[in-house]
């Protein structure tokens, strides 16, 4: 419950939600902090606070390559949040709620395996 609350709090801000959605769309290779700042239209100094909040919430991961920091979606953290939302769906039968949502759960850094 606490992890889900932290994730929702992190996403309850327009810039962080835009960053999260952008990183979900670009996939596991992510983007550099500079590219993120440019694409979201936020100064890098402001963006660093938002990125740290999303990372603490378990929704992003980061790594350094030489002088650049890359950010990408933390698929496991996102999967846990989706699973939390679907846990009690349709009296414990999430497969009844929506095919699209249940198919989103098996996606990860290596792509989506909808057969899982």
Automatic annotation (TrEMBL):
UniProt domain HTH arsR-type: residue ranges: 1-93
What PROSITE patterns does the entry give? Answer: HTH_ARSR_2
- Alphabetical list of InterPro entries matching this protein: ArsR-like_HTH, HTH_ArsR_DNA-bd_dom, Metal_resp_trans_reg, WH-like_DNA-bd_sf, WH_DNA-bd_sf
State the Gene Ontology terms under molecular function: DNA binding; DNA-binding transcription factor activity
Q: Which UniProt keywords apply?
A: DNA-binding, Plasmid, Transcription, Transcription regulation
User: Coiled-coil ranges per the record?
Assistant: none
Q: Which PANTHER family match?
A: ARSENICAL RESISTANCE OPERON REPRESSOR ARSR-RELATED
Annotated protein name in UniProt? Transcriptional regulator, ArsR family
Which organism is this entry from?
A: Azospirillum lipoferum (strain 4B)
